[in-house]
Each structure stands twice: as C-alpha cells, then as structure tokens.
Amino acid sequence: MWFASDNTSPAAPEVMAAVLRANQGHAMSYGADAAMARVTERVREVFEAPEAAVYLVPTGTAANALALACLCPPWATIYCHRTSHVEEDECGAPEFYTGGAKLTLIDGANGRIAPDGLRDALAFTARAGVHNVQRGAVSLTNATEAGTVYSPEDVARLSAIAREYHLPVHMDGSRFANALAFLGCTSAELTWRAGVDVLSLGGTKNGCMGVEAVVLFDPARAWEFELRRKRGGHLFSKHRFLSAQMESYLCDGLWRTLAGQANARARQLSEGIASLPGAKLVHPTEANAVFAAWPRAGHRAARAAGAQYYLWPGHQTLEGPDDEPLSARLVCNWSTTEAEVEGFLNVLRAGATAPEPARP
Fold first, then answer.
1. Strands 76-81, 102-106: pairing kind
2. Which of 20, 198, 239, 330 is in Cβ range 3.0-4.6 Å of 290 for a Cys bridge?
3. What are the Aromatic amino acid beta-eliminating lyase/threonine aldolase domain coordinates in residue numbering (predicted)?
4. Which residues contact 163 (CB under 8 A, 6 or more apart)?
5. What global pTM score does this model have?
6. DSSP state of 114
C-alpha cells in the first residue's frame, strides 16, 4: 500500500523496453542522437507548436530552475504560490540558477494562485524603483501541490494579468499529464494558447525512470537555455537514454493513459476516505493526489498494516486521542491497483469500527 509519492513508483514497461533498445550499439552524444530529433518533432506535434524548442534534463528541479533562469534576471522576482514546488522543495535552486532572483509568494485556495493576489503582488513590486527587486516572471504549477488543477481559463486569466506587466509565464508541469487527464483538453489549450511561454513537462512521476522536458514555445530563448543547461551540469553525454524515455512516454498517448490510471485510483481512494466516519477531504481530488483527514485511530491501523503515506503537515504525530483527526497526503501512480486502494480502505474501515481498548 504505497501512497507516499508517485516518485516511488516503478518505471512503465514501455519505458524500460525503450531504454533497453537504446542500449544497442552506438549513438551520438549530448542530444545529437536520432531519438532526440524524434522527441522534438513529437512534442511539437502534441503541443501544436511547430517552432517550439525542446530540451531534456534528468530532474524536475533542473527543469524548473533552468527554465526560470531564462525568464527572470537576478534583480527580479518570480511570482509563485506559497506552496509551490519551486518555493518548498527545490532547496533554493531557482534562486541559485537565476543568480539571485527572489520568490514572491502568493496565496490562493487549494494550491492555485488567486488572480487578485497576483495582481496585488505585481502592483506592490518595484514601488520604490531601484531600491526594490523588479518584476520578473510568473510560475504556475499544474497540477498543483494540493492535487488540484488550473483549467485553460484559469491559466489564461493569470497569464493576462502577467501580460499587463509584460511578464513571461512558466508552468511547472511535473504532473502536467495528470492535469490533462482530468481536464480532457489539449496540450496546446493548457499552455501556449493560454499564455504560457515555457513548460517543464514531467515524465519521472508518471512512468519514466528520470526525464523531464523543457518546452520553450518562443525559440528565441533556446540558445540561452542550452548554455545554462551545459553550465549547470545537466547536459547528459549519453543523452540517448533520456531521449528513449521521452520518446516512448509520448508514443501512442502512453503518457495520458498512465496519468488517467493514476487519477482514477486517486478518485477511488478519495471517495472511499470521504465516506468514512469522521473523515473529510482537505482539497478537491482532481489529479492523482488525495489530501484528507480522518481520526488518528485509522492512521495507527494503516501504519500497522504497512501503508506508506505522509501526514501532511509533517509535524503531526500518531500519539494522542484516537478520535482526533490528522490530515495526510496520499499519492497514486500509474501502477496503483484497485485492489491496493480497496485494501487500504478496508484497513481504515476496520480501524474506524474497532472497539476502544478497556480502560483500567
């Protein structure tokens, strides 16, 4: 019963097979492999963006930080949600790779930036001219760190506000496929048509071994990204193994199929938890992550049964009254099965109905 993270999941068989095929013979290095040319064409086709520049890196942090470095100078700030990955989980990488840019944190319900919050933050920045950091870029996370998604209309609304200040828009799409699977829209509708300039397209959390694509819809930024990737140590020499993963991931809609499977199991899990006595959802379940709270007794039962997930926030403890609710994050992945989810729910149900121990 693994719900700790989609990063704990195995690679999809199709991806592993592609890597093994790529291991036959020789191939040009540093992104000059034939598979990378096919990846570029496939991304352009999927996103309906024939001029897009496409680059591969091994991690989401590298994708986000290098992309933002191309958008934001050192004396500016990046506007992002308070709970965004670039703020909470990248060890200052965006600040490092930009050469010192700041992050301006914006609130908003369910992990989404509130348009009024973005507008207020933009108006407040640079009020004292040279004495303040300047406006740099806007970064959106889709799907969000709360397991929700931005619709194309949401993205367009925030992008329009950014455009009022002539700012570029970055999208952290480590779970982009999960957002698409929920929305049912096209990749273009959720990115450049809604005002996104650069996308970090995730693969690692959704069936790949370790690869992310940076998609620059404005090819004028391409050379700078190439230089930053090399200087930052993220240009693989045996690049064909990154290309093989991304090529198989995007082949025949595999990426959307895998994301749909993860989302379906999250819905099953979410609905099951919500039906338990004393349980409630903390955020709507729209992608593959479930945020919910239920009584401590159920958490104790789940942990005793070997379930892996995080109490969220992490300062909570299993010590305390049985009926006190504790909140948690549970993440499903492409390999999560119906039986695994049902087994977890059965443990929670049993924990919720177990008689209290006799008191001396």
1. parallel
2. 330
3. 3-291
4. 195
5. 0.96
6. P
Same domain, 141 and 281: no
List the beta strands (DSSP E) in the chain. Answer: 53-57, 76-81, 102-106, 134-141, 169-173, 198-202, 212-216, 280-281, 289-295, 310-311, 325-331
Q: Are residues 198 and 214 in the same domain?
A: yes
Final residue of a structural domain among 225, 254, 283: 254
Inside any domain, residue 28: yes
Task: State how far the Cα of 328 lies from the Cα of 321, in Å rounded to an integer.
Answer: 17
DSSP per-residue codes, 31-64: T-SHHHHHHHHHHHHHTT-TT-EEEEES-HHHHH
Return per-residue pLDDT of the chain as tens, 360 residues: 999 999 999 999 999 999 999 999 999 999 999 999 999 999 999 999 999 999 999 999 999 999 999 999 999 999 999 999 999 999 999 999 999 999 999 999 999 999 999 999 999 997 778 999 999 999 999 999 999 999 999 999 999 999 999 999 999 999 999 999 999 999 999 999 999 999 999 999 999 999 999 999 999 999 999 999 999 999 999 999 999 999 999 999 999 999 999 999 999 999 999 999 999 999 999 999 999 999 999 999 999 999 999 999 999 999 999 999 999 999 999 999 999 999 999 999 998 765 555 444
Residue 227 lies in a domain: yes
Examine residue 176 and state whether it is found in any structural domain, yes or no.
Answer: yes
Chain centroid offset of residue 333 CA: 13
